[in-house]
Protein 1
Amino acid sequence: MIRSVICLAFAAGLPLSCLADSQVTKANVDPVSVYERQADGLYVRTGKRSVEELSLPLALLEQSPRGYLKVSLSGQELWLDSMDVEVFPPPSIGNSGCVPTLQDSVAAVSRGAGEGCP
Amino acid sequence: MGRMAACFGWTGMPNGNHQEPRPGVASGQMKGIEDYFKQLAQLVLMCRRPRQLLHRLGAGFGRRWQLLLRYFASFRDDRLKKVPGYLVAWATFSRMVVISIALIIPAWLLEVVDPFGLSGAVERHSQQIVQKIAAPFYPATAQSRIAVVLIDEAALAVRGESWPPRYLYYEEVVRRIAKQRPSAIFLDVLVEDRRSYDASLPLAQKALEETLKETGVPLYLAVLDGGERNLFAKVPGTHLAMAGWSGYGADYPLLVDRSHRFGATPPESDNRCGTNSLPTAAFALYRQLCERGEQKGCGDASTEGDVGAFCAPMVVQWGYNVAPQIRARDLLSASQCAPSEESAGTRLFDSARILWSSLLASFDKESEVQGRQPCPYTLTVREEDLSSARVRGLLKDRVVLVGTSLAGIHDLVASPVHGQLPGVYLHAMALDNLLTWDDHYFARAEGTPTLLVLGLLLAWVSAALIRANPARLDFLLHAFAALLVLGVSAFFYLVLHRPPLDWLGLLLIFELARRILESSANRRQPSVN
């Protein structure tokens, strides 16, 4: 039980500890687009900042699964597209997946599309 | 008529096909199970005397060997030398007409009536077998110029979306691809419905416009009609490309006119290259590359009005060998995509393995599975990997096609090489075919005149052979028919880039015609004697 709690605590703390050390070290484009996270979880571009303005390196505060990185610039929190910048240490690239190539499979079903169309 | 029967050579002529009655079994009688039991009992008894058994086995082997030698020796028949002379004889031509009628009438009936859909099924199967065998030799010329980005359940889950994703998600995908400077992007998703619960449409349209303006990458949007309903169609920098059609069977049209649009009922006689035709995805992307000078040998494709060379629908050829970057960058699981060697020996081995698995399709399911390529031919990137290091720089100067792979979304196509694949691979493969062969792609063409000539040639040589009546006539007839049909099929496929002939069907029809004539000759035999 104690071991499980320790493992869980370790697992929960690991990403934070990793992020604490991560930095945005380089920009791939100039200027770099900056984004704002909306309440519905979408990221909207609010403007652009030159690389000089960003004053790299920047500490990486948060990494969104949608592919954005949160940094703090002059006390203001901003989101950057992960494609526009380089992070060090490089994040794990994860496992490779598969493409389904089927032979005798049948799917007599339709994927639900949420609420009905207007 | 007796003379006709005799000239067909199936009435007791010394052609080696006639079998002597076996001792112990009366002529015309069939063996019963008790006869086989007797033989089995004799064998068991003999097993108790091994020396005698060995002696008999040795004698049997010697007898078989002699028979085999005699069989091969029987091909050295002087009557074969008469065949060239018979080829130009009037009597041969008159028999050629009879054989042609026996060939053409069943072929025509099968073509017109197509009983139980058998004729069509055999034709499709013939062509698929050739496509499968040829797939390992598909040239990889354009493999480095095309990529597919797949949106699957895992990608949607990672990005915090479900199906259908919010409009802004598409902009994110397009933006991340466009930043890698591809030649063009094709979004193989219909975005036509305004959803009241998704307020991101204006944001997506604005962001998409900015992205396309900044990067200068053209974006092609999939449509099934004129594109009036497409929600991104008015965004500057976007173009439309047809992703669905009617009336082409399994072929891939390059231009779709109004009467062949998805859901329409195409007329019987139609002009498939009307002025109001819209390009399909592969052709639109190909034309884009031509216009930008990135594809040599485009011909008429670069001019909008003159597309005559691309009117015929394409019979898409599928590649077999896996793109090397898939393994080098670990883009897809190693269990699905093994690295492929591209040596001639390996290709030949793969081709032979596929042929073997096609032969044993029903007998050995495992062999059939082994003959199938589980890994797509086109370089594939999962959407969730777009911003990861493994994809960096990979999409530069490629045409990128974005498609979905979701259970319950029936966007699947059948590939003779892979089985079922997400539909976007059909567009990718058709584009690959165009970039590889330009206007010399594999086109569907009217084959009746060829079949007629082939039938006459087959009938002509068969008539001469039958008149010469050499030993092993049946074998010679079959061998000639197989060589001719397979040879012409190979010529069509390899040189003219036409789908191969229905070689299975043609050989079956030849056998049917041969048996009709043989049966007719045998029925008349008593009047001779």
Note: Chain B has 18 helices and ten strands.
Protein 2
Amino acid sequence: MYGYSGKLLEIDLSNEKINEAKIDEEILRQYIGGRGLAAKILWDKLGTKWDSIDPLEPENILLMLTGPLTGFFPGGRICISGKSPQSNGIVGSTIGGEFGVELKCAGYDGIIISGKAEKPCYISILDSLVEIKQANSIWGKEAKETLKTLVNESRMEFQKSKLGKWREPAILYIGPAGERKVRLAAVMSKLTHAAGYGGYGAVMGSKNLKAVLVKGTGPLPEVFNMDEVNELIKTICKECYDNQALFRQWGTGYGGYYFGNATSSEPIKNWQEEWHDEKSYSVTQFERFWIKRYWGDFGCPTTCLKISAFRMNSKNIVGDNPDYELQAYLGTNLGIFDPVKNIYLSNLIDELGLCGINTGNILGFAGELYEKGILTGEDLDGLELTWGNIDAFASLTKKIAYREGIGDVLAEGVYRAALKLSKMKGKDLLKYAVQSKAIAIGAHGVRSGLDYTDEISYACSTQGGDHTSVAKIPLDHPNSELTVLFYDSSVICWFNDWAIRKDLKWKLIKAVTGWDITEKKWYEELAPRILSIQRILLLIGGPDVKWLPLKDDDDPPRFYEPLPSGPKVGRHIDKKKFEKERKEYYQALGWNEEGIPTTETLVKLGLNEMARFLKEKLKNFTF
Amino acid sequence: MSAHIWIARDYLKCSGCRKCEIACSLFHEGKIWPEASRIRIFMLFPGLEVPHLCAQCEDYPCVSSCKFNALSIDKKTGAVVVNKRECVACGICIEACPGKIPWLHPKEKYILICDLCGGEPKCVEVCREGGWNALKIVQKTVLGFEKKNYKLYAREPEEVTRELAKIIYGEEVI
């Protein structure tokens, strides 16, 4: 087997058992790695009892999986998964950094973490030396302190095994939000990197797991044809250098102005508007604060990340770029059009270990309820949650992370919080929640029709509001969920694939694995298989949340309201057009009108066992 | 003698992409192998990336410390050359190095020290291709004015990180 070590690390925190498991080559051929392999593992291990598994109880498993292209395709990533405490389905949530590369160099393709530690712990991996350690020194700490402590502690440990200056390990960790099982909590790495969609920071917290660190001293796994891999890496980098100049210069930070002004698809005040002309929010105003202008993960030719720093109230604010999503969700969505305030809030989010998108979404939701007089100052412990009030939004963010007061309700995420607040207030508040399958909708609105997203993007995605994984026809569209599924399964960065010829990634996977994974085979067989598993487990959901096909495969009510301003003023989702496209999309995937994979499709994809299970399930189970 | 070169480093420009490690390990090991790279990027705190590699001190304390005659100086480039057969991986040269730069090979029994790729360092090449220019080749001059300066770059990564933190973040982070 090439490109893989062929081994997974299984760690049972309840029994403190550590085991190495071999992976069947045939499974890797069909599910590749990352999100694809996560779907397969979750179906095998939890599938038949899926609806009874609480994502925040010990029976859930947490996955950290690389793919065959991790470390080879420029720009290192790793995929985090498990049963999501947001959608109660599977989300493949990828995060940048060196963790995937270090893990492969340590000799593992991934980690399966099960059970729950009795006391707060972290996992340390130095090649085959795997230990579960007490987390006394880091539990309760915010991001930067957690990193500092872990780097110091681990280097001192490593030093015992070999002379010379040891480097830092790669670290995945959670902040105070994850420790409190906040459903908006991200798994974090470095300063600004987050696996936010899915809420897997809460799963880590539910297992009493503060961090996983890894140092691998071996090489990346052997590949099928090293010379060709080498040449392809050079070619991919060259094309990125030539074609990705915009992202190198600005990252996605140009978006704060662009997606508002040009494509009219930026969330403003909980999506009540999507257009603005605030030049104060243009990238030139952000780049004044960039102290690191070109920052990248392992092998990245684009280095789209930026670090901002400035002094505020005699404190140094160091942190996120921010990228476009955070500019929007922790800026315009809260009525903030000032880079300083936006960078401040992004930094706070990172320190607390929250997902910027999901948190900014619920902050906006709370802001609108306050504007409408539904949430009062009393509900908010005296906070005046007016648009643009940075102090109030920052305070509420902390309340969410620490589950204090109203923060405890909002910590459940926008969907669950809306249901709870609806009961408390005696009116339907779900209509103000801009989400799909309890996952906040990414900051790319669909009403204007000018962005890359459209009517079915979020409504029909197996990952709900995830803007990186949108439903799209034709299935082989460069932005479709099936295409992204390849990035998330081979575990590579989508931004670097944008800049290069489309055949290069297919050539690379062949040169790395030696397998004949063609574009045709991917779109017709491998991707639909993985997506069908994701779709079925999403629909089974449970125990606290279940999705009805069609009813819940819809856009949020807000998107049916007309845009109040901008180049496409008055435009909104057309129900008929939406329903027609949804039907076409399901048909294209071999799913029935309700989006349930048909027996015929499942059998064709080799998912016979799943077909039998689904038939049985459908008998005494209504979706 | 005139072909002696040295690799200058601009810490503020390092993007942390580690293409230098990929290029170095591919050239020397035929594999992507960050921990067997002769140049290693330290990131003791995110955003503070420190390329850590041999500075070719004019008095070569590592070479004179070796009891096994495993280290010598390349006449053409001035690089420290490791004789893999003689080296016993005792680590004395690490202690002798003012920057603690030499690093034991993760699988084999010998020390890793930058050999300047025989005069055309691959790390510099990829850093230039990428446009970061955090690493640059400096030709040693005939008169050798710069000689004393090389050694100043042989520093421990913690020390460089602390200084960078003050410049970049305005605070102490490690």
Note: The mean pLDDT of chain A is 96.
